[in-house]
Amino acid sequence: MSNVNLNLYRIFCKVAQSKSYSEAAEKLDLSVANISTQITNLEEQLGLKLFNREKKGVTLTEDGKELYEIVNKSISSFDFVEKLAKDKNNISSGNIKIGCPSHFTSYFLMKKIEQVKKDFPELDVTIICEVDINKMIDLLQNHEIDFSIIDAQIEKNNIETEELLTIDNIFVSKAPLTITDIKEIEKLNCILNLENTRATKQLKELLKKYDINIKADMMCDATEVRVEAVKRNMGIAYVIKEAVKKELENKELYEVELPIELPKIKLNLVHLKGELTKVDKKFIKEYLKKQN
Length: 292
Description:
This protein is α/β, with parallel strands linked by helices. It has 10 helices and 11 strands.
């Protein structure tokens, strides 16, 4: 690696992760032509073909895969050390990059960010909202985020998972509604989170035990959109109870009374082992974990 500009390896890793010159160019704020030239330069310097050029993008060759496995770990370690040096472990001038699905960001994370920004206005905060757990873990592994907040337990040797809180999910309606026979829910217009979310999967698994195959008339990962649909009397929505606390108190929405207990969700903090900076740790300890 010593004879090759480190920036070429950064570009190589970004293209490998994106599987696209154009997407890598956008992320690196470079032109596609520049990306193409840099990759060609790297291939010529190494004497290796690193990518297969295809209509829909690029894929790594066998040589490219071997190089990526080695280089990505080195780049990630270098980036982590560089972040430590830049942050100087000072939350007042550091930066935090967090991965969190939008529905958890709205009701849980945003108020934590609001609090820390009031105390440290110069702290840079980046939030990447991603629903797909696998993509979130890729962001973590590639050091594009410092840690993530997700409703899944990740079992990887280099990743730590820590429970933050337990979440209650409920169905809400525009007017008071009591369901005495759970099978009645099949007749209602149901508004759910996306199919691949843990909340929706757990709900469907539970209802299958009662021989109920619930069909969503509408699906959306944004809680506020599901809530708005209920307010427009489009059906009942499955939401995080805490996220609609004000609407329930003001009787804009009503919790649907059911004869069964709905699944709870565990919200977890996920990060790479040993790679939280003091800035990350301070935010997690004094803001994220603080109950208020």
